[in-house]
Design brief:
InterPro entries: Homeodomain-like_sf (IPR009057), HTH-type_Tx_Regulator (IPR050624), HTH_TetR (IPR001647). With 199 residues, this protein is mostly helical. It contains nine helices and no strands. It is elongated and about 60 Å long. The model has no long low-confidence stretch (mean pLDDT 86).
Amino acid sequence: MQNKGDNGMKYNNETSEKIMKVSLKLFSEQGYYPTTTKQIAEEAGVNELTIFRHFGSKSNLFQVTTEHYVIDSRVDYILNDIEDLSFEEGMLLIANRIYKLFIQNTKLYKVQMKLSDNEQGFVKLKLSRKIISILIEYFNELKERKVIEGEPEIMAVTLVNSLLGAFTVEILGDNTVSDLKWEDIVKEHTRQFVSIYKL
């Protein structure tokens, strides 16, 4: 069954998939405005008119593409199998899973970083917000059990922003900032986080 957008257009077919794949590549490399539908068409091996027939406009192509590739359908899994773990062990597992989600969405974050402030509305990445929402619920539960102290929302935002900051430095630095492995960096962020909030 084919997925349709609000305007009734079909995106879940071979041609649309090819266009979106090329679009994501060019948008992440060049940014939104420098990338033209002509470039996308040429690299995708389609007529430029085909892009407008499938997506209606460049801005809609951009929005559909970013939404399509957000790997957030399995975000809930970050809390899997942590019931029997200590707070420290559980947080390390959660933090590693969050960072891996960032890695899976590298191209989308590169797209977002290339947008100026007044263009940010183009990208409605739900990944970080979903993670924060799940963490708030988890931290509320831990607070009720008197495992942690602190405000759950602040804790969730702090953890995600900390990991996202480390991830941003890694992709902007193109691995030239440090030789440290991301696993070691995540482990240290988690250690500091646990030391602040654990009762």
